[in-house]
Amino acid sequence: MTQTIAVIRGDGIGPEIMDATLQVLDALDLGLSYDFVEAGLVAYEKQGELLPAATMDAIRKHRVALKSPLTTPVGEGFSSINVELRKRFDLYANVRPAISFPNTKSRYENIDLITVRENTEGAYIGEGQNLTADGETATLTQKITRRGSERIVRYAFDLARRTGRKKVTVVHKANILKSTSGLFLKVARQVATEYPDIQCNDMIVDNTCMQLVMRPEQFDVIVTTNLFGDIISDLCAGLVGGLGLAPGANIGTEAAIFEAVHGSAPDIAGKGIANPVALLLGAAQMLDHLDHNEAAARLRKAIVDAMAAKDNLTPDLGGSGTTQSFAQAIAARAKG
Ligand code: ATP
Ligand code: MG
């Protein structure tokens, strides 16, 4: 049976890196087919809606989407279309690997860790509110539930087990945020007892940031709440050489959306120099999700080999290649 994927080409550098990514996917020769749908600024301009019903239907039907960065116009209904997609499909697990690649300007060479960020609760449930008419005092409500905490922590432990990882670190701020972060930590410790084969520790978020910078090798899988996960995963992207190399998967029970962590990078859009690797690594996560594990491994190896050979690296990696020529260098190595 042919697997069809909903494909969102996105805004800014989105279309360029998506075309490059599909070219590499085609070289893997898996017989995938694509259902192109629109979201974000492009959809708003052409269809008058940021998230057209046809786009929602396609994701629901195919259950898998590959998505380029989207721009959310200011003042158009919701604060972020990415957050909205996660909410509508209840994509509760945001899985962001940070793995070292050759020839990057990073401080470490052997980083291999995954941040599992809770994607639906915490500080992201609303936009907060102004308490006074002058707009000078504002509050924000956070929500943590046992159900939400349980399923994300369980996801992290299952991921560790499935992929042969040894340790899960629960990151929190329970010493100050006693109710919310305290609940998350309590639930996480309970869930951990169900996984005696996986080592588990917990760490306060501020200390975690310092430890990540100083001794990143002590981490394997990190599981944490929404806002901490957002910040920590960018820190981890920085550890391995920047946003151009950082992918993310948004996983729920009904659908999964795979993407690059970075945004639409309007400053370099249309120049043909965006690094396609983050989205390509998102595609590799997608292939794993679809049980094309051999192809996913082949894709990752092609990326590593092209980078090791400094073959058409894009300018963010210090090369003078283009999105297209770098993708071709990877595609040539990915052929089955
Ligand atoms: P958005 O508002 O959509 O998030 P942004 O202006 O915040 O866009 P990001 O895409 O988040 O920009 O990235 C920040 C910077 O990192 C960009 O200005 C860009 O120069 C660089 N960058 C991001 N992604 C890439 C990439 N794939 N290749 C090269 N440079 C990138
Ligand atoms: Mg951004």
Automatic annotation (TrEMBL):
MF (Gene Ontology): isocitrate dehydrogenase (NAD+) activity; magnesium ion binding; NAD binding
UniProt record, GO biological process: isocitrate metabolic process; tricarboxylic acid cycle
Highest rank taxon of the organism: Bacteria
EC number: 1.1.1.41
Gene3D superfamilies recorded: Isopropylmalate Dehydrogenase
Pfam families in UniProt: Iso_dh
Annotated ranges, domain Isopropylmalate dehydrogenase-like: 4-330
UniProt keyword annotations, A-Z: Oxidoreductase
Family: Belongs to the isocitrate and isopropylmalate dehydrogenases family.
Descriptive protein name: Isocitrate dehydrogenase
Species: Arenimonas donghaensis DSM 18148 = HO3-R19
